[in-house]
Write a structure and sequence with these properties.
single chain, 431 residues, Rossmann fold, eight-stranded mixed β-sheet, six-stranded parallel β-sheet, 14 helices
Length: 431
């Protein structure tokens, strides 16, 4: 497969350099390349870079492998560990938090400094990573501190444009939603906002909504904090119902018949790169003002430990109990384990029980490094259930929904997702 080796030889296509080829960066690169842009994807993971240049992918997202193979073979997507000159630079790197829940901007800073030598007047720099308010301004500051020949002053001949455009896609539907969803763009000044809007309007079918950088940054944090608060309400309800011997799934179904009530579904906690992380950025920025958001985070972060307590309660009269956990991903039908409460539950159980903890996760082929304990075994779903005294249903994968419920007879089932809500009360605990 012939790849483009000298990027500067191609002058007829607008060039985009994307730093970070993870769950958002790679799909974005593929979508842009599929829309005629010449895309250089940059990542520190050399194995991922090699796979992409061979038309393959290192992450799972429906149809992503086919699109990557297509745009690589057409010469519109090339991956490397180093950036190069471009018209548009997109930063799509992680923004985790530290142990004290303070934002960690080290990846954003490293990505910014990697592109600084290649930025030229007229270039557009876009931060897509979900970040604390003020991060886009920091990026402009980092650039200007090292490049005295550049400016953000409007109408300057050396002006560059710096903006924020948060991703707002659902894993499993990323390729569709990158194009179909409305986007929010906010620049550090009006011209940056307009330049960024013009760029996204070339491939986004949804509305491109214009604001300033700070509002754009807080908009994404707000969307995820809203979800987090509502999930916390459902999770707290599930604990209350467990205490009162009420089926929470039936309760929510009944309550949602009210025309103005829409309670979300509870689970073992909250995971993923957004909802489990982003609200902490608001709490860090305004700790005395974000009481509800902070409480929701604590409720959702505590849920995995409540599930562990339910397992301990279920096994108290069983000698040498065998436990099977079904699912590791943070949500259904994906392979993404980032901030997954299921991973935390399995890790905690492995520290409590000496017996092997059997784990079934049909979307991965090996355990993450954090679960490389001697008493955790990744195995097939059927084997895990057969060997178990206690089955903990952690993720509502479609694969698990298709399991014949007779497989759970004579098992204690702790169902955190409501998959077996029609199960017998004496064998199923719904929480």
């Amino acid at each position: 497969m012939e790849l483009i080796k000298n990027w500067e030889m191609v002058i007829l296509k607008r060039r985009v350099c994307i730093v970070g080829l993870g769950y958002i960066g790679l799909p974005t690169a593929a979508v842009l390349a599929n829309n005629g842009f010449l895309v250089r994807g940059v990542d520190v993971n050399e194995k991922a870079v090699d796979l992409i240049n061979n038309g393959q992918v290192h992450i799972y997202e429906p149809d992503l492998d086919n699109m990557v193979n297509k745009v690589v073979s057409e010469g519109n997507l090339f991956a490397d560990i180093y950036p190069d000159k471009a018209d548009v630079f997109i930063l799509s790197v992680p923004t985790p938090f530290k142990d004290n829940h303070k934002p960690d901007l080290s990846f954003v800073e490293s990505a910014t400094k990697a592109i600084i030598p290649y930025i030229e007047p007229g270039n557009l720099v876009i931060l897509e990573s979900t970040s604390p308010v003020g991060t886009t301004e920091k990026i402009a500051e980092w650039i200007l501190n090292e490049r005295l020949d550049l400016s953000i002053d409007e109408n300057s001949s050396s002006q560059i444009f710096v903006s924020h455009c948060p991703e707002r896609v659902l894993p499993g539907k990323i390729l569709k939603e990158l194009v179909g969803n409305d986007r929010i763009v906010g620049g550090i000044n009006d011209t940056s906002t307009k330049k960024t809007a013009e760029f996204y309007e070339t491939f986004v079918e949804g509305k491109v909504l214009q604001t300033n950088a700070r509002t754009a940054e807080l908009s994404k944090l707000t969307e995820n904090a809203y979800r987090d608060v509502n999930i916390a309400f459902a999770n707290e309800l599930s604990i209350i119902c467990d205490d009162l011997n009420i089926n929470v799934w039936e309760l929510i179904n009944l309550a949602n018949h009210h025309p103005r009530v829409n309670i979300l579904q509870p689970g073992p906690g909250v995971g993923g790169h957004c909802i489990a992380v982003d609200p902490w950025f608001i709490v860090d920025a305004a700790p005395e003002k974000s009481l509800l958001i902070h409480t929701a985070r604590k409720v959702n972060d505590s849920k995995p430990y409540y599930i562990v307590e339910k397992v301990q309660e279920a096994t108290k009269n069983i000698n040498n109990p065998t436990i099977a956990c079904l699912g590791l991903a943070f949500k259904a039908n994906i392979d993404d384990l980032r901030e997954s409460p299921s991973v935390e539950i399995v890790k905690k159980l492995a520290s409590i029980y000496d017996q092997t903890i059997f784990v079934a996760e049909p979307h991965i082929e090996e355990l993450p490094k954090s679960l490389n304990d001697v008493n955790i075994e990744l195995t097939k779903t059927g084997k895990a259930i057969d060997k178990a005294d206690v089955v903990v249903l952690l993720v509502d994968h479609d694969y698990f929904k298709m399991i014949n419920k007779e497989a759970f007879l004579n098992k204690i089932v702790i169902d955190t997702r409501g998959i077996l809500i029609s199960g017998k009360k004496d064998v199923t605990i719904t929480i």
